[in-house]
Write a structure and sequence with these properties.
It contains 22 helices and 15 strands.
């Protein structure tokens, strides 16, 4: 309300100035006629409205409104007592028409105090006037009445116009301040304010929901911003229908909407139906729209609303990429996971600068136990918490895009180790480094790897590049062209975890790589062990046919080594031979 009042200053100034001019004219008229009491009263009113102008300029609108009502009541009293009821009645019209609907208390109950008090005062004065009559007898056709009628009705018309202008301006300003310009639902700030107001006044239980469209930026790029705006407008209309008249809903940011709904009125089935309906309406063969909602159950109505929204966002982030689920609920487990993610992201840059990250090497061996090379794996050694599992921080950095900065660090560390081994006369050893799918978008891979080879003067074939097969699922032609450039420079390309993801024969048909890494992990996920061994045998034969070397990772037992040797596999990596270890330990065990 205070924000709305601040935008009424110009209209208040007009009313105060018009009242000031009216009293100046009254002062001149009553001075000319010699009526001293009314002359003194209007002189005092001129001073009063001059002070009022100062109050309005300082934005004391509530004080100004109250004082205006008081002044008009006094004007009516003086007018009725001195000139009679007919004269004072005109002031009633002015008060009712200009001030009853136009003051800072318009939308609060206390506005009714003014007209009630004034009505009682007017009735008392009317009865007094009928019984006692005016103190000054003037003729009915006197110029006082013409003057009074002229100014009173003029002020009535002027007040009505000003009131209309002010209320329109107030409505526009209110809309601008509270409504989102595109969807016409509450904007972020007013949604937060309104939710807080509802929760403070109500003892009921509520849910707070946040909705989000997965990959909406891509939708805008694919179909245009105008079509994207249509989706947002439709989503806002959907919220209105789903929420009903007793809920609060608004657009928080971009494609994110919020809704406060009473727990008793919430229906997961209905909300799911609305989301699915909107998804179907805008999904095409090029883009499958996925709209998801995170739900936070409010247990403490005094909790900051922004915190509630953040918890609902945490929930919705969990299912952004899960197209089989569109609604999930916030719980303490999600909160802990979110705190871990925030801590990782917050400490990452400092940890990188302070060399808390290092590389571990896991040897790649022949069946006889001779080391041919190693795979570089990153580790985070936290000064307080010790070793942080890669499973905790790698997915977080992948999601945020920071993984590319970490990968650059790992590649550089691996190149430094290769340089040291070269100086020790061990150019026969190699190190494989992993390349994330995000690296293809955030890093110039060709410049990065060729730059390392030139910087540390190492052989490109000793720095092997390991990619996952999922990398080739998007923009395959572009990625294959880049990989071929790297191969032409002398690098060897490995496909990691072949057989555990989206491998396909069509991919092998189109891409030329040097090494196929076979993942033994899927042997542990099935009861059909012999069928799995048959698949491994077929993959190994396929690799030989395509003139690709194989590295079998995840080897844990001697029996597995024996069977893999029989199949034709010749390079192994796994706990049976060695776990990942610091560089110095690997050098002590295998190089000294």
């Amino acid at each position: 309300m205070d924000k709305e009042v601040l935008n009424m200053g110009k209209s208040y100034k007009l009313i105060v100035i018009s009242a000031l001019l009216a009293h100046v004219i009254y002062l001149l008229a009553f001075t000319y006629s010699g009526i001293t009491v009314l002359q003194l009263y209007n002189f005092g009113s001129v001073i009063f409205y001059a002070i009022m102008e100062v109050l309005v300029s300082k934005k004391y609108y509530r004080v100004a409104t109250i004082l205006v009502h008081v002044e008009i009541c006094l004007f009516v009293i003086v007018s009725v007592v001195m000139l009679g009821w007919e004269f004072g009645f005109q002031a009633i019209l002015v008060a009712v028409c200009t001030l009853m609907y136009f003051n800072p208390f318009t939308r609060k109950r206390r506005i009714y105090v003014f007209p009630i008090m004034e009505f009682v005062l007017f009735m008392v004065l009317r009865n007094w006037s009928l019984r006692h009559g005016p103190m000054i007898a003037v003729e009915g056709e006197g110029y006082y009445y013409y003057l009074n009628y002229t100014f009173c009705f003029g002020i009535i018309i002027f007040g009505a116009i000003i009131t209309k202008i002010a209320t329109d301006r107030l409505e526009r300003e209110n809309t601008r301040m509270t409504r989102d310009s595109l969807t016409n639902v509450y904007n972020h700030d007013f949604f937060i304010e309104e939710v807080g107001r509802v929760l403070r006044r109500s003892g009921k239980q509520y849910y707070l929901l946040c909705t989000n469209i997965s990959g909406f930026k891509f939708y805008n790029e694919l179909f245009g911003v105008e079509q994207g705006d249509k989706v947002l407008v439709e989503q806002a209309n959907m919220l209105k229908a789903a929420a009903g008249q007793f809920c609060v809903y608004g657009r928080l940011a971009g494609d994110e909407f919020g809704i406060l709904i009473e727990k008793d009125n919430y229906s997961e089935e209905q909300m799911t139906a609305y989301l699915n309906e909107l998804q179907k309406k805008f999904s095409t063969f090029l883009y499958h729209m996925h709209i998801c909602a995170g739900v936070y159950e409010i247990r403490d109505n005094t909790e900051p609303v922004n915190t509630m929204c953040e918890k609902a966002r945490i929930a919705v982030d969990e299912i952004k990429d899960d197209y089989d689920c569109c609604i999930t609920y916030f719980d303490d487990k999600l909160l802990q996971e979110s705190l871990i993610k925030r801590r990782i992201l917050g400490e990452f840059q400092y940890a990188l600068e302070e060399s808390q990250f290092c590389i571990y090497l896991q040897p790649q061996m022949t069946g006889e136990g001779r080391m041919l090379g190693a795979e570089a794996l990153v580790r985070w050694i936290h000064p307080k918490e010790g070793m942080i599992s890669p499973a905790d921080f790698i997915p977080v950095l992948e999601e945020s895009g920071l993984i590319s900065r970490l990968d650059l660090f790992v590649w550089d560390q691996a190149a430094q180790v290769l340089r040291k081994w070269k100086e020790q006369g061990r150019e026969d050893l190699y190190i494989s480094v992993n390349v994330s799918g995000k690296d293809f978008y955030y890093t110039d891979l060709y410049e990065a790897f060729t730059g390392l080879v030139k910087k540390y003067e190492i052989k490109p074939e000793n720095l092997k590049i390991e990619i996952t097969e999922t990398v080739l699922m998007k923009e395959a032609e572009k990625q294959m062209g880049l990989l071929q450039k790297l191969r032409d420079f002398g690098f060897e390309i490995e496909i990691d975890d072949f057989g555990s993801g989206y491998s396909s024969l069509s991919m092998l048909k189109d891409i030329i790589v040097d090494v196929m890494k076979i993942d033994m992990g899927f042997l542990r996920k099935t009861d059909h062990g012999e069928r799995s061994w048959s698949i491994i045998r077929s993959v190994a034969n396929l690799a030989r046919t395509l003139e690709m070397n194989t590295v079998t990772e995840g080897v844990e037992t001697k029996d597995q080594v024996t069977r893999l040797l029989d199949i034709g596999c010749d390079v192994f990596q796994g706990y049976y031979f060695a776990r990942p270890m610091p560089v110095m330990e690997l050098e002590r065990q295998y190089l000294e």
